[in-house]
Each structure stands twice: as structure tokens, then as C-alpha cells.
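Quick one, probably user error.
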């Protein structure tokens, strides 16, 4: 009697078969879907790039600077509203189309001299009482208000009469020095400089 020996055949258990299935199949799915995901990602990048380019073009048009020539408007007194005020106009509270005091009106030569005289009168009567009681902000407000008129009106007259320029400049400088003393609340210095302002104001008045 003869016997044939055969090598034992290894059998995988049910758990091993399941593990093998789990390890292989997801990798196959990932490999199959990888080209599709890469294509979708590339499409999104192109779309966002197109949107960003369009937004940049729109922003460039929105921020475009338009250059406007105001030479003609300025030659008619457009910028003058920031310095002088029309004394004959009403108070700031009036409405309904009535001219306000902050609306400029260019005056004639005689009217300009009258406005300068009015400013000089206010300088001689409205400043000293505020200095005496150390109400420096009130003195500064009145001083600067009249300085705005004076600068504009002196420049207007000096364009035709050069003799106004010198006394006018001296007065403006004296007023600026007084304003600085008021800012630092130095009463003694303010009183001394105020007397200088009055002297320069008389010199300008004589030159009108």
C-alpha cells in the first residue's frame, strides 16, 4: 500500500477575508476617483481666478480719478467763501434761501474799505474786555473772525493800491502775535501786544 503526502493548504478565516476586502477596495476607489477630484479642483481654481479678475477691473473703474478744472470758478470768487463774510447778510439761523453771513460777496472798493473799518472798530472794542476777565477763548474767537475779513479785504485793496499792503501786513502779523499770547493765557503779554495791534490798526486806517 502506498501513501501520497500533500502540503497542507492554508485556509483564510472569515475575518481575514473581510480584512483583505477592506484593505483593497477603498484604495481602488480612491485611485479611480483621483482624476475626477483633480479635474474638479482645477475647474474651481479657474472660476475663482476669473471672478477675482473681474472684481479687480470693476474696482479699477470705480476708483478712477476724474480731474476737474476749477480755474474758471475760482476766478469768479469760488474759494473766497472760506475767508470773508458779507456783513449785511442776516444771522446764521436764517433759512429759506435768504443769504447767510457765511456766504461771501465780493464788495466794491468803497464797500471793502467800509468792511475794513468795521473790523478795526471791532478790534478796538471787543478784545480788551475779554482779556481783562481772562476770557481768552472769547478774545481769540473775535480776533480770528476779524482777521479773516482783514486778510481778504487787505488783499483785495492791495491789488489796486500797493500802499495798503505794508500797513495791512503789519497789522496781520501783530494780530497773529496777540493770538499766540492768548493761546498761552499770558495776560501781561496779551495786554502789551494788544496795544501794538491798536497802533497797527490806526496806521492801516490812515492808509485807507
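Nope, works fine. Designed sequence:
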Amino acid at each position: 500500500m502506498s501513501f501520497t503526502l500533500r502540503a497542507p493548504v492554508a485556509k483564510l478565516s472569515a475575518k481575514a477575508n473581510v480584512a483583505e476586502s477592506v484593505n483593497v477596495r477603498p484604495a481602488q476607489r480612491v485611485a479611480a476617483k483621483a482624476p475626477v477630484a483633480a479635474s474638479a479642483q482645477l475647474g474651481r481654481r479657474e472660476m475663482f481666478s476669473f471672478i477675482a479678475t473681474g472684481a479687480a477691473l470693476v474696482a479699477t473703474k470705480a476708483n478712477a480719478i476724474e480731474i476737474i478744472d476749477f480755474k474758471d470758478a475760482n476766478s469768479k470768487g469760488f474759494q473766497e467763501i472760506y475767508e470773508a463774510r458779507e456783513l449785511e447778510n442776516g444771522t446764521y439761523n436764517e433759512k429759506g434761501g435768504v443769504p447767510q453771513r457765511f456766504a461771501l460777496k465780493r464788495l466794491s472798493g468803497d464797500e471793502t474799505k467800509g468792511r475794513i473799518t468795521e473790523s478795526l472798530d471791532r478790534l478796538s472794542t471787543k478784545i480788551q474786555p475779554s482779556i481783562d476777565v481772562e476770557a481768552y477763548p472769547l478774545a481769540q474767537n473775535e480776533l480770528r473772525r476779524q482777521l479773516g475779513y482783514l486778510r481778504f479785504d487787505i488783499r483785495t485793496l492791495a491789488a489796486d493800491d500797493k500802499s495798503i499792503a505794508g500797513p495791512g501786513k503789519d497789522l496781520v502779523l501783530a494780530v497773529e502775535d496777540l493770538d499766540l499770547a492768548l493761546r498761552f493765557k499770558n495776560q501781561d503779554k496779551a495786554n502789551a501786544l494788544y496795544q501794538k495791534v491798536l497802533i497797527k490798526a490806526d496806521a492801516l486806517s490812515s492808509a485807507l
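Helices lie at 14-62, 71-75, 109-126, 128-132, 136-158, 165-183, 187-207.
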